[in-house]
């Protein structure tokens, strides 16, 4: 994964004039970047509140601070090992004994499904603009489909048939499967996951959930817009350009490399050059200030949350374990 990140960074920066790159960085208005980082921090708070709302049917004891801190630590973990953060935050919540790991993981699965739906929703308006539609279809969708060894339709059919076959086999041999050690663990995991997903649908204050979700994606949009304002070459671009770059940039975070390093720079700069006529250097300056500002925010608040989580989780365990020891002695 580190090798892939390094390779993508090499391809992104290989033809760059470093003097022009440094000069371009100095020309940026970092007040806009600071504002973007503040918005990114607020988005993490909103994500923590939304996740807590999803977990409340499983346990009402999870605090706002726990949900917020574990979300910060999640992003910190992703900088070390891609996609590990989701497992880490579920493990931290489960460590408190308030929610099972499987239940927390089920809410995360449902949360990611909602996020995927939101990506689709915010992408749809872009198809009303020719330059965005042409890029998304011709430069991204067609190359992805053509790179598949089979047609996209056959791939989808194969996935659906595989799922159906696995479900039928499981139903036919469930008792024998459950009798094995692995089968027992798998069924417990599956039950916990489904309980977590069901809890998401049973949550109170559903309109508050939708409100948090809307504010989260408005926050991402604002972060993209403020980054445009920070860089002279992009300051004149519109809110629709900010939305387009937000959607494209999200793909860079999906690639399984640490913190999107390399992938984000490569994808965003590759977009800015043909669509807006940016030079390669200007495209990379924009990608760098956009990405690294988010990474700095993740590092700072992730480390703070790691410290605060360690302090109050230790106090919580001491408060729970000591009375139990006293009762056992009695």
What does this structure look like?
82% of the residues lie in helices and 0% in strands. It has 14 helices and no strands. The protein has helices at 2-13, 18-26, 30-55, 64-80, 85-95, 101-123, 130-146, 152-172, 174-179, 181-202, 206-230, 239-254, 263-276, 280-329. Helix 1 runs parallel beside helix 13, helix 3 (30-55) runs parallel beside helix 14 (280-329) and helix 5 (85-95) packs antiparallel against helix 6 (101-123). The radius of gyration is 23 Å and the shape is globular. 33% of the residues are buried.
The residue ranges in which pLDDT falls below 50 over 5 or more consecutive positions are none
Question: How many H/I helical runs?
Answer: 14
Overall spatial form: globular
Radius of gyration: 23 Å
What is the H/E string? HHHHHHHHHHHHHH
Task: Write a concise synopsis of the structure shown.
With 330 residues, the protein is mainly α. It is built from 14 helices and no strands.
Produce the secondary structure layout:
Layout: H1 2-13, H2 18-26, H3 30-55, H4 64-80, H5 85-95, H6 101-123, H7 130-146, H8 152-172, H9 174-179, H10 181-202, H11 206-230, H12 239-254, H13 263-276, H14 280-329
Helix pairs in contact: 1-13, 2-14, 3-4, 3-11, 3-14, 4-5, 4-14, 5-6, 6-10, 11-12, 12-13, 13-14
